[in-house]
């Protein structure tokens, strides 16, 4: 399994003119080559930046494991995994996607952390009739106004994480929130979803502050939250930004509950369990939840520096497993919309997310879990980070189908 560059793809095309002089031979050999061409899946995400711990090479490893568990083939063709770094830039992501689809023989692009990049690539996939298998991008627009027949949104979205955490805090009579929000599509979506739930249930937003991606100093935002007498500090950001905000809040001795609207296990590992203790978060996967998740982690962890997989990396495994079932059911990967239609028709079932469905809007439905990071003294073994606070059934965790505005519904 390897990476394909634009130059490399053009070099492969450079050897074809001699076949063009013999149309019959070219057609026959072209059909044979197509029949034997691999089902090629590109993992496109942040490989070196703020989200690389939660996605990155860990997602590539998960995709390779999914291909291995499918027997390495789908619809009689070998499966190949390639990858690239979009650098959290939508224009870079679009350029890679176009090159992959037009010249690199890529049938599907998976993961797509950074919602702006995910939305941009989803539109390219629609134009090219390829599949996009989104695990890390969180915007609800992907199954709402920007839904396409080529998109599957697997792991979570901003509605599921923000809605469940807001309700949990409201039950604890902590309804006055201050948002520290990443200033791009994903962060704003998190704040908007949580705000809707708060206001609909008697809560209140006492203030908010926006910050650019990859901010180093959160002191002014945290002091503003303290001055506003917020009952909850809500972090509407992700990756290293979440970790730094949690760490600095602890350094300031802030006592308010902190909810990470997109926090996950990589953030706990980044700042340390002692610093992260008390943090509330929502995930759809936890490595130590059941036998299936533990078995996956036992295989995955030695390949990724002994770390524990995030829900996004687990989501790549789950969606690639199901995509390959869809390819086999469709008889091939060429028609992306047809493969996605098969994915929706086949009930989902894998060892990490269990049984579920993919709705007409492309939204994968499964349970979500509210966790609180426990103190190190309460851990029974390495990686025992969470206490389970609540399990939210999938039909309650995700936005109702009728409310999304997807034209496919």
Word description of this protein:
The chain has 409 residues and is of the alpha/beta class. The protein has two domains: 38-156 and 295-366, Response regulator (Rossmann fold, 3-Layer(aba) Sandwich); 160-283 and 368-401, Rossmann fold (3-Layer(aba) Sandwich), CATH 3.40.50.2300. The chain is built from 16 helices and 16 strands. It has helices at 6-13, 17-20, 23-36, 56-69, 90-103, 115-128, 158-171, 185-200, 219-227, 239-251, 265-271, 273-276, 291-300, 311-330, 336-345, 394-397, and strands at residues 39-45, 73-74, 77-85, 108-111, 131-134, 151-153, 176-182, 204-211, 232-236, 258-260, 280-283, 348-350, 354-358, 364-365, 368-373, 386-392. The strands form three sheets. Strands 8-7-9-10-11-15-16 form a seven-stranded mixed beta sheet, with helices on both faces. It has a six-stranded mixed beta sheet with strand order 2-3-1-4-5-6, with helices on both faces. Strands 12-13-14 form a three-stranded antiparallel beta sheet. Strand 7, helix 8 and strand 8 (204-211) form a beta-alpha-beta unit. Helix 1 packs parallel to helix 5 (90-103), helix 7 packs parallel to helix 8 and helix 14 (311-330) crosses helix 15. The longest helix is centred in the last third of the chain and has 20 residues, at 311-330.
Topology:
Elements: H1 6-13, H2 17-20, H3 23-36, E1 39-45, H4 56-69, E2 73-74, E3 77-85, H5 90-103, E4 108-111, H6 115-128, E5 131-134, E6 151-153, H7 158-171, E7 176-182, H8 185-200, E8 204-211, H9 219-227, E9 232-236, H10 239-251, E10 258-260, H11 265-271, H12 273-276, E11 280-283, H13 291-300, H14 311-330, H15 336-345, E12 348-350, E13 354-358, E14 364-365, E15 368-373, E16 386-392, H16 394-397
Parallel strand pairs: 1-3, 1-4, 4-5, 5-6, 7-8, 7-9, 9-10, 10-11
Antiparallel strand pairs: 2-3, 11-15, 12-13, 13-14, 15-16
Helix pairs in contact: 1-5, 4-14, 5-6, 7-8, 10-11, 14-15
